[in-house]
Amino acid sequence: MNSDFQKKADFKIGEIVKHRLFSFRGVIFDVDPEFMNTEEWYASIPADMRPKKDQPFYHLFAESEEGPYIAYVSQQNLLKDDSQEPCLHPQIDVMFNNIGGDYVLKKENIH
Hints:
Mean pLDDT is 92; it is low at 1-5. By secondary structure, the protein is mainly beta. The chain has a five-stranded antiparallel sheet, with no helix packed on it. A two-stranded antiparallel ribbon has the order 6-7. The chain contains two helices and seven strands. It has a single domain (16-109), classed as SH3 type barrels (Roll), CATH 2.30.30.
């Protein structure tokens, strides 16, 4: 891919983010430099809301009022979460240490 089309990741692993349009937030546990999910997943997004593929996509341990889940979100749809509230997704403790409110990868999860 031409590097002019690649965008730099604005967020990092362990950062708490929230969705720009929907009411959920989460901790980033992985980043794809561009869209790497299935075409079926992509086609399931309404056309008028479908994000461009040539941007970073983030895997989140997400939480909403309905409970915890895994989310896959484009960079354009994420904002930094400044609420200072911890995330309560049950898988966070498996991958991260909470150090002063910051989520830091456990040594065994660093590749």
